[in-house]
UniProtKB/TrEMBL annotation:
<dbReference type="GO" id="GO:0000981">
    <property type="term" value="F:DNA-binding transcription factor activity, RNA polymerase II-specific"/>
</dbReference>
<dbReference type="GO" id="GO:0005634">
    <property type="term" value="C:nucleus"/>
</dbReference>
<keyword id="KW-0539">Nucleus</keyword>
<keyword id="KW-0238">DNA-binding</keyword>
<dbReference type="Pfam" id="PF00319">
    <property type="entry name" value="SRF-TF"/>
</dbReference>
<keyword id="KW-0805">Transcription regulation</keyword>
<dbReference type="GO" id="GO:0000978">
    <property type="term" value="F:RNA polymerase II cis-regulatory region sequence-specific DNA binding"/>
</dbReference>
<protein>
    <recommendedName>
        <fullName>MADS-box domain-containing protein</fullName>
    </recommendedName>
</protein>
<keyword id="KW-0804">Transcription</keyword>
<feature type="domain" description="MADS-box">
    <location>
        <begin position="1"/>
        <end position="51"/>
    </location>
</feature>
<keyword id="KW-0175">Coiled coil</keyword>
<dbReference type="InterPro" id="IPR033897">
    <property type="entry name" value="SRF-like_MADS-box"/>
</dbReference>
<dbReference type="InterPro" id="IPR036879">
    <property type="entry name" value="TF_MADSbox_sf"/>
</dbReference>
<dbReference type="GO" id="GO:0045944">
    <property type="term" value="P:positive regulation of transcription by RNA polymerase II"/>
</dbReference>
<feature type="coiled-coil region">
    <location>
        <begin position="78"/>
        <end position="105"/>
    </location>
</feature>
<dbReference type="GO" id="GO:0046983">
    <property type="term" value="F:protein dimerization activity"/>
</dbReference>
<dbReference type="InterPro" id="IPR002100">
    <property type="entry name" value="TF_MADSbox"/>
</dbReference>
C-alpha cells in the first residue's frame, strides 16, 4: 500500500505538532549518524523546540559572532571539493615520489648485481629525470657509506689517553723501594763485615795467635 503524501504545512494542532517534532527529530539524528559513518566525517545537527531555552541561547550566541569569524571554517560544496582534490593530489604526488625512488633503487641494485653500466651504457628506456634521480640516489648512498666508514675508522684508531698519575701511590711505592734498597745495603755491609772478621780469625788461628778450635 502506497504511503500518503505528506503535506508540508504548519500543523495547527499542538499535540500533533509536538509528536511530529519528536518523531522527525529522531529520524533526522539517525540520518546524521548514518552520514557520519558512511562518509567517515564528523557531522552534527542542531534541532531544538521553541520552548528549549538552552538551545535558543546557543543559537543566539552563534548569531552574535562576527561574520568573518563565523564563516572562517565554513565551506560550501565547491570549496569542500577543491579542498578534497588538493589533498588527494598531494597524496598522489607523495606516492609517485615513493614509487620513483623505489624503481631507481631497484635499478641500482640490479646494475650492481649484474655489472650493467660498467661497459654498456645505461638502460635506453631511462629518461633524463630517471638518470638524475639515479645519480642523486648513488650520491646519497656513497655519502652514507663514507660517513659509516669514517665512524668505524675513528673508533678503531682513537688513541687511548694515559691515566692520570696517582701521586700518593707513587710516593708510597718510592718510599718502599728506598727502604728495600737501604735494607739490602745494610745486609750487604753486614755480610762483608762477617766475611772479613772470619778471614781475620782464620788467619790468626793459623798463626797461633788465638786459641780457637779451627778444626771441628
Amino acid at each position: 500500500m502506497a504511503r500518503k503524501k505528506v503535506k508540508l504545512a504548519w500543523i495547527a494542532n499542538e499535540s500533533a505538532r509536538k509528536a511530529t517534532f519528536k518523531k522527525r527529530r529522531k529520524g533526522l539524528m539517525k540520518k546524521v549518524r548514518e552520514l557520519s559513518v558512511l562518509c567517515d566525517v564528523k557531522a552534527c545537527g542542531v534541532v531544538y523546540a521553541p520552548n528549549e531555552a538552552q538551545a535558543v541561547e546557543v543559537w543566539q550566541r552563534f548569531k552574535s559572532i562576527p561574520e568573518m569569524e563565523k564563516t572562517k571554517k565554513m565551506m560550501n560544496q565547491e570549496s569542500f571539493l577543491r579542498h578534497l582534490i588538493a589533498k588527494l593530489q598531494e597524496q598522489l604526488h607523495k606516492q609517485e615520489k615513493e614509487n620513483r625512488e623505489m624503481e631507481t633503487r631497484l635499478f641500482m641494485y640490479r646494475a650492481l648485481a649484474s655489472g650493467e653500466g660498467r661497459e654498456a651504457p645505461l638502460h635506453a628506456a631511462m629518461t633524463i629525470q630517471d638518470v638524475t634521480c639515479l645519480a642523486w640516489l648513488v650520491e646519497v648512498k656513497v655519502k652514507a657509506v663514507q660517513e659509516r666508514l669514517d665512524l668505524l675508522l675513528k673508533g678503531r684508531i682513537m688513541p687511548i689517553l694515559p691515566r692520570p698519575p696517582k701521586v700518593e701511590q707513587d710516593h708510597v711505592e718510592k718510599e718502599k723501594v728506598a727502604v728495600t734498597a737501604s735494607a739490602s745495603a745494610a745486609e750487604a755491609t753486614a755480610a762483608m763485615r762477617l766475611n772479613i772478621e772470619g778471614e781475620i780469625q782464620a788467619q790468626d788461628c793459623q798463626e797461633g795467635k788465638v786459641n780457637l778450635p779451627c778444626d771441628r
